[in-house]
Amino acid sequence: MMSTTFNQTELAKYDGQNGQPAYVAVDGVVYDVTGVAAWAGGKHHGNLAGHELTAVIDQRSPHGRRVLDKLTVVGKYVAD
């Protein structure tokens, strides 16, 4: 059950830098990408953890949303 809610300011804290976990939001759901090798250092193909990436994954990602099923959901995202 998702109980943690993130807005843009809260999500930005989880950028994968300085020991912080790396989280990304897609379509209102926040995912933990911390343990994903491709997201090392909070960066993946020019995208940064701590951001809402729905448009990126839908329009520019070669793998699309299918990779999201492998990730841990940590909360929900609500725009400010």
Automatic annotation (TrEMBL):
Every copy of the Cytochrome b5 heme-binding domain together lies at: 6-78
Species name for this entry?
Answer: Lactiplantibacillus modestisalitolerans
Record's signal peptide: none
- Spell out the protein name for this chain: Cytochrome b5 domain-containing protein
Q: Which InterPro entries match?
A: Cyt_B5-like_heme/steroid-bd, Cyt_B5-like_heme/steroid_sf
Instruction: Write down a Pfam family by its short name.
Output: Cyt-b5
